[in-house]
């Protein structure tokens, strides 16, 4: 085991855990999570078996997009603490043998960032070209039809200098001009600042947005647009995103990382598989892990999902390491998408697939999307398109630690309301319950970390139909594992065509099955998933 693992790096063998810092743990009684709070909870993560933490942005920010609008790339927002708190956090993480991944947001800054304040001050300011400024069309209209992801035009008129600037997200988040070498150098310096401190990697925000068409051509109309969809989807963003030149930028970032020891970069990229694969870079010199978001959007159908896994496995470049995600701070939680029963099956899928899993905070206790009353909505995406139910607040609610007044998250009123059921569903209540989601997650992670076949072994599809999927994970010289997952609520049978397979069930979504052996035809109840240690 030691020897095989040594050929793999930490970001291949560890389980990554995403913390949304506003919602994890408040230490100073202001209702908002902070860095000292995260430090207090590191032992929970260690106990869970987590070895790498990704922190959503903690930098100074006017918070128009809750930290994804950055006003200073090398500072810490006072809400979250200070640089000293950060150094302490990094230390505490490293001393537990864990890694820290920071969020890097290179596509855009806050409109309050000094770079933008300078850039907008006059047309001949040296930083004018750091952002994307364009003249209006002769009739005064924006330079092209590009839309903002958060609704409305992507162009904002600046009265003082009589030009438009481009913002893929909020008008408070102007896009940087990545064709400008000074911008490139400035952002690579930001990376060096954190790498010099010892940060282990970055999750790079909207990587596929970073370079736009040099001719600024209009995006084509999406003929499949329907009114319930976000207004941004009216067009195909073919000229505003995923331009060939982005790969040169990613390569530059990679070169910086490669000057350090074992640092890594995850790319946030919502693209179809073939395009996603390009982000691994030529000769694997791009992003280490271009986020694979397929499980966030596919219908919960065994055949569909098995097929998507195969497509992904087949499309991976030879050196490309896979990864899987069930949720993040922009998406509905898995429990709300597939239901509590299937969320257990989903956990087993995430933690038995080949490739690095990323767990979204709270999913380990089966947190659900929390209904936020209309007047309390805070997310700009929700506020800007109020009729489309797109607010991301429901999946960003405070972590449920115990049954005390504010779930152990804070002593004050939390910035976003807690789930109504937090007194029942929380870490403390689930910790010693053998049937809880938390126990399932912990045991899945433990098994994955103990068994080379599950951690680094091959993926071999065995079966899929309209209810159930099955696959084998196998590392050379180690016992293989058969994973059978019933993605439906009804009983099912599976007769693996590779069979008859022999083995013992070592972990199941419902522990009653554990210790049993499998028959030639395996039968499962609805919502059941099993991991079988194969003996032949
Ligand atoms: C990414 C972030 C999201 C943010 C957006 C703009 O998609 O995950 O939360 O709103 O970028 O920065």
Structure description:
With about 525 residues, the protein is of the alpha/beta class. The chain has a domain at about 115-165: Oligo-1,6-glucosidase, domain 2 (Alpha-Beta Complex), CATH 3.90.400.10. It has 17 helices and 18 strands. The chain has an eight-stranded parallel sheet with strand order 9-8-7-3-2-1-11-10. It has a five-stranded antiparallel sheet with strand order 12-13-14-18-16. A three-stranded antiparallel sheet has the order 4-6-5, with no helix packed on it. The longest helix has 17 residues, at about 180-195. It is globular. The two termini are about 20 Å apart. Alpha-D-glucopyranose binds near residues 65, 68, 268, 329 and 330.
Topology:
Layout (H helix, E strand, L loop, with lengths): L1 H5 L3 H4 L2 E4 L15 H6 L1 H7 L3 E4 L27 H13 L3 E6 L9 H8 L11 E2 L20 E4 L4 E4 L14 H17 L3 E4 L41 H13 L5 E4 L5 H5 L11 E2 L3 H4 L4 H14 L7 E3 L8 H5 L1 H13 L3 E5 L19 H5 L42 H5 L5 H14 L1 H5 L1 E7 L3 E7 L6 E6 L5 E3 L8 E6 L13 E3 L4 E6 L2
Parallel strand pairs: 1-2, 1-11, 2-3, 3-7, 7-8, 8-9, 10-11
Antiparallel strand pairs: 4-6, 5-6, 12-13, 13-14, 14-18, 15-17, 16-18
The protein binds alpha-D-glucopyranose.
Tell me which ligands are bound: alpha-D-glucopyranose
Largest sheet: 8 strands, parallel
Within CATH, the superfamily of the domain at 114-166 carries the name Oligo-1,6-glucosidase, Domain 2
Which second-level CATH architecture of the domain at 114-166 applies? Alpha-Beta Complex
* N- and C-termini, Cα separation: 19 Å
Output the radius of gyration.
24 Å
Number of helices: 17
Give the overall silhouette.
globular
**Quick check: average pLDDT?**
97
Number of strands: 18
Unreliable residue stretches: none
What's the CATH C level of the domain at 114-166?
A: Alpha Beta
Structural class: alpha/beta
Strand order of the largest sheet: 9-8-7-3-2-1-11-10
Q: What share of residues is helical? A: 25-40%
CATH topology of the domain at 114-166: Oligo-1,6-glucosidase, domain 2
Share of β-strand residues: 5-15%
Domain Glycosyl hydrolase family 13 catalytic: 18-396
Protein name: Alpha-amylase family glycosyl hydrolase
Pfam family, one: Alpha-amylase
InterPro entries: GH, GH13_cat_dom, Glyco_hydro_b, O16G_dom_2
């Amino acid at each position: 085991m030691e020897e095989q693992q040594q050929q793999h790096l930490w970001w291949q063998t560890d389980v990554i855990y995403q913390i949304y810092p506003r919602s994890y743990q408040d230490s100073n009684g202001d209702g908002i999570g902070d860095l000292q709070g995260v430090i207090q909870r590191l032992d929970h993560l260690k106990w869970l078996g987590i070895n790498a933490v990704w922190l959503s942005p903690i930098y100074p920010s006017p918070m128009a997009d809750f930290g994804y609008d950055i006003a200073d790339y090398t500072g810490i927002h006072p809400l979250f603490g200070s640089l000293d708190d950060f150094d302490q956090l990094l230390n505490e993480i490293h001393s537990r043998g864990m890694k820290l991944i920071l969020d890097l947001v290179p596509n855009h800054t806050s409109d309050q960032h000094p770079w933008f304040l300078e850039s907008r001050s006059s047309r001949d300011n040296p930083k004018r070209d750091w952002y994307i400024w364009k003249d209006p069309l002769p009739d005064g209209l924006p330079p092209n039809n590009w839309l903002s992801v958060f609704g409305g035009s992507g162009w904002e008129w600046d009265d003082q200098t009589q030009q438009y600037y481009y913002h893929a997200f909020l008008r408070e988040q102007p896009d940087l001009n990545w064709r400008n070498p000074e911008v490139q150098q400035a952002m690579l310096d930001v990376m060096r600042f954190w790498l010099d401190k010892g940060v282990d990697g970055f999750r790079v925000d909207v990587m596929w947005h970073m370079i736009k068409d040099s001719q600024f051509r209009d995006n084509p109309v999406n003929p499949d647009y329907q009114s319930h969809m976000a207004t941004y989807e009216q067009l195909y963003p073919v000229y505003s995103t995923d331009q060939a030149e982005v790969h040169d930028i990613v390569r530059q970032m990679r070169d910086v990382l490669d000057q350090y020891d074992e640092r890594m970069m995850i790319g946030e990229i919502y693209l179809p598989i073939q395009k996603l694969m390009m982000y691994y870079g030529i000769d694997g010199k791009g992003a280490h892990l271009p986020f694979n978001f397929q499980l966030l959007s596919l219908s919960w159908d065994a055949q569909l999902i098995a097929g998507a896994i195969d497509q992904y496995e087949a499309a991976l470049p030879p050196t490309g390491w896979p990864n899987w995600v069930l949720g993040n701070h922009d998406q509905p939680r898995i429990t709300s998408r597939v239901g509590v029963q299937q969320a257990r099956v989903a956990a087993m899928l995430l933690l038995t697939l080949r490739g690095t899993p990323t767990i979204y905070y709270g999913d380990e206790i089966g947190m659900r999307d929390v209904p936020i009353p209309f007047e309390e909505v805070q997310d700009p995406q929700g506020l800007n398109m109020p009729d489309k139910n797109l607010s991301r607040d429901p999946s960003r609610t405070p972590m449920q630690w115990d049954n005390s007044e504010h779930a152990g998250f804070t002593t004050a009123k939390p910035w976003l309301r807690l789930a109504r059921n937090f007194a029942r569903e929380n870490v403390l209540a689930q910790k010693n319950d053998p049937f809880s989601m938390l126990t399932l997650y912990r045991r899945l992670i433990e098994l994955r970390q103990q068994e080379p076949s599950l951690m680094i072994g091959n993926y071999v599809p065995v079966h899929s139909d309209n209810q159930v999927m099955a696959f084998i994970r196998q590392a050379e010289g180690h016992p293989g594992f058969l994973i059978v997952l019933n993605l439906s609520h009804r009983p099912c049978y599976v007769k693996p065509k590779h069979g008859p397979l022999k083995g013992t069930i070592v972990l199941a979504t419902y522990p009653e099955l554990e210790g049993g052996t499998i028959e030639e035809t395996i039968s499962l109840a609805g919502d059941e998933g099993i991991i079988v240690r194969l003996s032949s």
